[in-house]
Amino acid sequence: MKIRTLLFLAVLLFACNFAAQAQEYNSAIGLRLGYPASVSYKTFLSEKGAVEAFAGFRGFSGYSWVNLGAMYQVHNPISELDGLSWYYGGGASVFFWNFRSTFVGDAGTNTSFGILGVLGLDYKFKDAPINASLDWVPTFFVNGFGSGFGGGYGALSVRYVLK
Q: Quick one: pLDDT at residue 149?
């Protein structure tokens, strides 16, 4: 299941990279510095529509998770500043949880699915191949560990623009 999901995301990313664009940039890859820290790839499918795929890991005190996800984003330029746009959208993510504690013992592993919303700002630096974004990602966990609403997620992303 994990290999199929990774393979599907890789094919999607490469296929999306060939779409024609009228943007400040077509695609970018870098880090999503949030909860959890992730690798991020963003590509535009149309003038306003972009897909961002990410994979991340977080671990501490016997508790860890890996997540894979993607979001569709609608970008709207802010005319007062070249290269700046705001965006909104949604997507989905899958979380693979693991919890082990000396007090509780082995609580095992679990898989959760999340429905994501996104609201953020995106900026392409004029004289450098760098893109930065800041967003809020409210998440509703459908099942498993942490099921229910999680509103505190978001990230600062810094990506290298691919030509």
A: 81
| CA 127 to the chain's CA centroid | 25
String of b and e for 22-60 (b: at least 16 CB within 10 Å)?
Answer: ebbbbbbbbbbebbbebebbbbbeeeebbbbbbbbeeee
Distance CA 95, CA 112 (A): 5
Cα gap 35→157, rounded to integer Å: 12
Average pLDDT over residues 31-54: 94
Contact residues for 1 (Cβ-Cβ < 8 A; gap 6+): none
pLDDT digits (tens, 9 = 90+) for 128-147: 999 999 999 999 988 876 67
Q: Answer for the pair 73, 49: CB distance below 8 angstroms, yes or no.
A: yes
Residue 36, preceding bond cis, omega within 30 degrees?
yes
The Cα diameter of the chain in Å comes to 56
